[in-house]
């Protein structure tokens, strides 16, 4: 009888702990995944630089960067790149911008999520300044020009000649 009580107690302990552990594991996976993506460039996640550092620049090497924009359903802001593409030299910093216009009579809050293709290029696409670093607040009928300052590091595989940067804007509650 005593061994049966031990088995029952172990069973209920495991049954109680399993959902708690699953919850904490799921909760911890999001920040761990974000850090993993930022370090490796996995899933097209771009990196950051804190200052304009000096890179070795090869003026003969050129890469075409194409800019794209999307908004998720329910996000009432028109959003798009100011220019659709630009030719860049790896190691040099460039500035461009995206334009967003709130088409409503309400304040809209959103967050842009970047993605780079091909994914091999993501680890070498670094942003110094980006509207995607923070949530954006759009006043009613406000049009905003949002700056992007970036560099493609010269270590990028020389076979890659075209890179696409895409943003997807999501609506936030506040």
Please give a handful of descriptors for the protein shown:
Ctag/Cox11 (Pfam 04442), 25% helix, single chain, 5-stranded mixed sheet, alpha+beta, 174 residues, 2 domains
Largest sheet: 5 strands, mixed
What's the gyration radius in Å?
22 Å
Overall number of structural domains:
2
Strand content: 35-45%
| Contiguous runs where pLDDT drops below 50 for at least 5 residues | 40-44
Order of helices and strands: HEEEEEEHEEEE
CATH homologous superfamily assignment of the largest domain = Ctag/Cox11
CATH class of the largest domain: Mainly Beta
Question: What's the gist of this structure?
Answer:
This protein is an alpha+beta fold and 174 residues long. It folds into 2 domains: 9-43; 63-171, Ctag/Cox11 (Pfam 04442) (Sandwich), CATH 2.60.370.
Q: How would you describe what is shown here?
A:
This is Cytochrome c oxidase assembly protein CtaG. Its main location: membrane. The protein has 2 helices and 10 strands, in the order αββββββαββββ. By secondary structure, it is of the alpha+beta class. The chain folds into 2 domains: 9-43; 63-171, Ctag/Cox11 (Ctag/Cox11 (Pfam 04442), Sandwich), CATH 2.60.370. The strands form 2 sheets. A 5-stranded mixed beta sheet has the order 1-7-9-5-3, with no helix packed on it. Strands 4-2-10-6-8 form a 5-stranded mixed beta sheet. The chain is flat and about 80 Å long. Residues 40-44 have low confidence and may be disordered.
């Amino acid at each position: 009888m005593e061994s049966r009580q031990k088995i029952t107690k172990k069973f209920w302990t495991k049954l109680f702990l399993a959902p708690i552990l699953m919850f904490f594991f799921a909760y911890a996976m999001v920040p761990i995944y974000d850090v993993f993506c930022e370090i490796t460039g996995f899933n097209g996640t771009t990196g950051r630089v804190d200052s304009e550092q000096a890179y070795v620049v090869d003026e003969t090497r050129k890469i075409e960067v194409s800019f794209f924009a999307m908004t998720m359903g329910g996000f009432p802001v028109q959003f798009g790149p100011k220019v659709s593409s630009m030719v860049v030299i790896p190691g040099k910093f460039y500035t461009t911008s995206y334009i967003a216009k709130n088409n409503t009579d309400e304040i809209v809050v959103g967050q842009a999520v970047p993605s780079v293709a091909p994914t091999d290029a993501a680890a070498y696409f670094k942003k110094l300044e980006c509207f995607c670093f923070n949530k954006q607040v759009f006043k009613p009928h406000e049009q905003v020009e949002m700056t992007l300052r970036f560099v493609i590091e010269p270590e990028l595989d020389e076979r890659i000649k075209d890179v696409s940067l895409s943003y997807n804007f999501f609506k936030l509650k506040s």
